[in-house]
Request: fold
Amino acid sequence: MSDAYGGGDAEHWLAPAMNEDSPAPLPWTADEIFNYLRYGFDARHGIAAGPMVDVVQNLAKAREEDVRAIAVYIADRMRRPVRQAKSNDEANAFAQLQESAAVPGMGRDAIPARSGGVASDSGAAVFEGACATCHYSGSGLQSTKPVPLALTTSVNAPDPRNLIHVVQSGLWPASGERGAMMPGFAAELTDDQLVAVVSYVRERFSRQPPWHDVSQNVRAIRGTERR
Reply:
């Protein structure tokens, strides 16, 4: 397949692949893509952020049938080789297992990362203090619960830029829309803490290889935003 839909860069964010190489653990359906494009949120995939916010705001003014046509076209481009239901069940089970262990107040030994070591301990401590209260499957209203981290594209993407942006700036529903939200931690976290928690989230909530360029991307993104 042509790499025209293979992803790229957009305003210092990663634009994920929109073909069979999509990093989303669960395949997108046309209805889910429509929800994301029209309303900026889908319960299985998450909330629009970064440059996609403007896209959603513009598509909110378009005819519904046109947005559905775009969604059907993208879904066709993203079609993967046939996946058994078991694969989706395994992805969901992994996500729920990882989230259910992230219980606030249980100490960082309760939420170990795969690699272990000082960096993982530091990231686990930041996660427990700043993230675990919400990213825990046993709490919160269903309508406002965040998508399990293990199912999000940003955590499973080939590089850490989008997750860094999300942790820094947070996530907010489009104006007038309901949905999960998350505060940003740019003012609360040092560069080292941001590197640690982003690395930890990748290690704990993704079955993809660890990122090795988190520190460089944190410096680049924060340097750009401070100008």
